[in-house]
Amino acid sequence: MPMNVRTLCLAILFEEPASGYEIRKLSMDNTCKFSHFIDVSYGAIYPALGKLEEEGLIAGHVVEQENKPAKRVYEITDKGRSEFLASIAVVPEDDKFKSEFLLLAMHCDMLPRAVIRKAIEVRMATLRAKVNSIEECDLCALTPGARFVFAYGLLMNRASLKYLEENHQTLIDAAGTNLQAEAAE
Amino acid sequence: MPMNVRTLCLAILFEEPASGYEIRKLSMDNTCKFSHFIDVSYGAIYPALGKLEEEGLIAGHVVEQENKPAKRVYEITDKGRSEFLASIAVVPEDDKFKSEFLLLAMHCDMLPRAVIRKAIEVRMATLRAKVNSIEECDLCALTPGARFVFAYGLLMNRASLKYLEENHQTLIDAAGTNLQAEAAE
DNA sequence: GTTAGCATGTAAACAGTTACATGATTGT
DNA sequence: ACAATCATGTAACTGTTTACATGCTAAC
Fold first, then answer.
1. Closest residue by C-alpha to C1' distance, nucleotide C26
2. Edge-to-edge strands of the sheet including A58-65?
3. Distance in angstroms (rounded) separating the CA atoms of residues A10 and A146
4. 3-class secondary structure for B20-36?
5. Is-above-0.85 flag for pTM?
6. Tell me: the pLDDT tens digits for A29-86?
7. Which residue is nearest to nucleotide C9 (CA to C1')?
């Protein structure tokens, strides 16, 4: 299963028509509708949409707007739908996870306490915001699959936040206890 | 904070000397010592090691082995240590998470039940293996930072497994209930 | 004798980011 | 005036994967 810009665009257009600009925003939305995807830049989205249209998997048309520039809204075609479903109907690869915070936390004893404190503070705020935005969603309006995914996102973010709230002090206490003399320079 | 092959190599060599081949294996190890990193290929590791040595951040020397080809083992230098710590001593970016399984789960009503079943079965096995391998690690032998990271990994993988065990039936029940006639072709 | 694991490395291809270019509108 | 948001798109660059090339040892 390819997890690239192409698949991201099809996945979003499978749900609702959108412009390139809107796809970008949706992909970064932490209400987690598509948060199991990576963020992508405009420089990747626009060429991908052009190619998908060329192949007949999506169809775009210009929509005029009041007080805003016109936008090119794409809709998925039947061909796009069936190709998307076929492409995801395989045994999935393992989840990919990358965390700068954990790399920092792992080396807390060698880093200044102020850095550790700030990193914890920012992470807590981010996790709280994410939990809140998922809580605001109406789970009932979703398909069983989407409900499963949303509830999972809520659970994991809550668990992550709770762990940090209960254990952040151990990181702060350990911070800087093994600080190398910077005089090495 | 750059999360690339370069940083991965420095992070691993910060812990212990290793060859390119060993760095690859460590980066894929699910005991999670470096599982908050992405997997990388040899084609990325070897050139990165060459460049790091050129810059004096690591130093390599050939180690002969019995019944195996000789290997080039790298050690991190003082310069490498301080540059690595400086590079991670910033406010971390948000975690990056990518899940093919969640994309599949989200569309379960439009996919064949057999596909959903198989995906769940494989994921459960993977999660159980991961939980077991983390459980086998001796947390006491670690620094406080590493302990924090390991315990976090264990917690999250257990939570993920428990959620799947308790809710997989809803996915299976919903599977295929909205199957598009493939006659569209 | 053939597959699997150990070990290193290169070149072509690919995916995606960054920076640039453009331009309209809204709010401060 | 200036910044922010909306909106699209291209070109250069970067990082990483894939495939190839090589060769040795161990196990089946």
1. A67
2. A18-19, A68-76, A58-65
3. 16
4. HHHHHHHHHCCCCCCCC
5. yes
6. 766 677 778 889 999 999 999 999 999 999 999 999 988 899 999 999 999 999 999 9
7. B46
